[in-house]
Amino acid sequence: MGNNKKIKVGMAMSGGVDSTVAAALLQEQGYAVYGFFMLLPVPEMEAQQERVSRVAETLQIPLECIAMENHFTETVIHYFLSSYRQGLTPNPCIFCNQYIKFGSFLRAMLAAGMEKTASGHYAQISASQGQSLIVRSPDPLKDQSYFLCRVDSRQLDSHIFPLARWSKQHTYQRAKSMGFDFQGQESQDVCFLSGDLHSFLASRGLKERPGKIVTTNGTCLAGHQGIWRYTIGQRRGLGIPDATPWYVTAIDATNNQIVVGKTEQLLHETLTVHSLQWFRKPTLFPWQGAVQIRSRHAPVRAKLTLADRKRGRVVFAKPQRAITPGQYAAFYDGDKLIGSGIIEKYQQ
Q1: In CATH, what number does 267-347 get?
Q2: pLDDT tens-place string over residues 265-320
Q3: How far apart are the first and last CA of the chain?
Q4: Could you say which of 65, 149, 191, 220 is catalytic?
Q5: Where are the domains of the chain?
Q6: 258: which strand partners?
């Protein structure tokens, strides 16, 4: 046991395996652990609240529920809907980490008297040149560093990732040894969706707006009922029979058109980003390192050139498939996450 007995740690609890084992590890290290749970406008919230209450009771830690329904709706869901209206593909988990989990929720824990905060993310925190930054988890199948690419360095200064060097398999094994059975209870990617995406968007006011599905040279091949029904790289649901598949290559919100092409037209070697944000800004540009453009994308060597303080241009060592405006480009120096930008557009 460590010398942490008097240190109060606010543990972000969900009732799932990761936060449960993380809380238990903090207890073993001697921290005074307090559980905090976000009340959100998501399906089966009551059942989730009951589950986290049982976990807290078993671990014998106090639990405080923080009402965040309105703030979550006004922040994350508004961003989600606004992005689709603009023909962009959002990443609500990254946005939520930035503004909710490591924003208002973290501040609520500190305001409740916590000295440190913690969560069950699979990532590491490292100090570099006086700045806290994210380092990849050693478990490549569960590494969540990409989802933390917009967290502010200062938000990490008093934060703990108890599962920093753990694998998911190891976490399940520890949970089982504690008497918990979480097998088959993985959380879904977008926690607030009830049913399919299209039904959710329609229920929130994204109405049908017919338009054209066109080729890159402007030939109309079919019609669509709303640009928000499509994402870059999509193949299914286009209704365009051909000898080889068609894919969505662009979403033209200005003209209300979906642009399609063949698989080779999904490949691009250059993209532009805006809203650049740094954990550790490189001292020299162009910067060269690894760039990851979505959660399941293998990082690729690339060069970043600045256009101004908040905008830049990324050129990959080899063309990448389905570069998607609205998603995030995360910049890595080895395993260290040093910054990110929001993808604006791709270029030939």
Answers
A1: 2.40.30.10
A2: 999 999 999 999 999 999 999 999 999 999 989 999 999 999 999 999 999 999 99
A3: 57
A4: 191
A5: 8-177, 208-261, 267-347
A6: 213, 251
